[in-house]
Amino acid sequence: MPGLMLLDTPSLYFRAYYGVPESMTAPDGMPVNAVRGLIDMIATLVRANSPDEIVACMDADWRPAFRVAAIPSYKAHRVATGHEEEIPDTLSPQVPVIEQVLDAVGIARVGVEGYEADDVIGTYATRAPGEVEIVTGDRDLFQLVNDDQPCRVLYTIKGIRNLQVIDEAGVTSRYGIPGRAYADFATLRGDPSDGLPGVPGVGDKTAAALITRFGSLRAILDALDGGVTDGFPAGSRLKLGKARDYLAVAPAVVKVAGDAPLPDVAIARPTGARDPEALVTLADRYGLDGPLNRLLAVLAP
């Protein structure tokens, strides 16, 4: 499926960090497991999918102010100090190395101030004229699947070599909802991993039943306001009514932005290193000869 491949880079380097032993170190002993793992992931993805364009999407702001203003608990449990995200001590120093490697190879690396990587992905996906593949371990991005484009998610839950392809049918199969209704479904049930409370007492089954019956969160609320009783699972009308304040603000938090101000950068898949000298320096400094050679080999025409 040639086209545009969008990498949820933070999701991937976290997976690499936990999936590759910390015994993978640079000559000076610095762990480089996340760096090596991510490079090999990208090589595997390019080899298997041959995208025409590829973007490594980044978190310029992992906890954007507009989401926190709407729901203060958003990712609050993951704050280390101030506005900094709590991440492992041995991962933090690897992120700048990852960025340098991507730049030297020539893979577009895009983050937008005030937005998460998800929003960068959402904006590229919305604007893309053709096929899109999103590589992520984050279910939030299921809301972007669209068979008409087509746009699908390559879900890393079982590893980069055993990706689950999520299209509209995949969303329906997993959750019993219409294929493009994931954002409304997630709003109703909530997501503790992101600090989103959801509607108390409304879990997956009730959320799916409501979305399937009414089609959207907006339609559910309109039915609630209009006094409709048919189609509401027992007790759900009362639960929804008590959660109206949450439901008024949550969609703007859950919905992936499609209007982030993307920079004007070349996103064509590179066919060789953009900066060979810098890449050699990085390979020597961090002991990356093997993974970089594998990546360059699959990028070559």
TrEMBL record:
InterPro entries: 5-3_exonucl_a-hlix_arch_N, 5-3_exonuclease, 5-3_exonuclease_C_sf, DNA_polI_H3TH, FEN, HhH2, PIN-like_dom_sf. Pfam families: 5_3_exonuc, 5_3_exonuc_N. Keywords: DNA-binding, Exonuclease, Hydrolase, Nuclease. SUPFAM superfamilies: 5' to 3' exonuclease, C-terminal subdomain, PIN domain-like. Transmembrane segments: none annotated. One of its GO terms (molecular function) is exonuclease activity. Residues 1-271 form the 5'-3' exonuclease domain. The keyword Zinc-finger does not apply. 5'-3' exonuclease acting preferentially on double-stranded DNA. This is 5'-3' exonuclease. It comes from Sphaerisporangium corydalis.
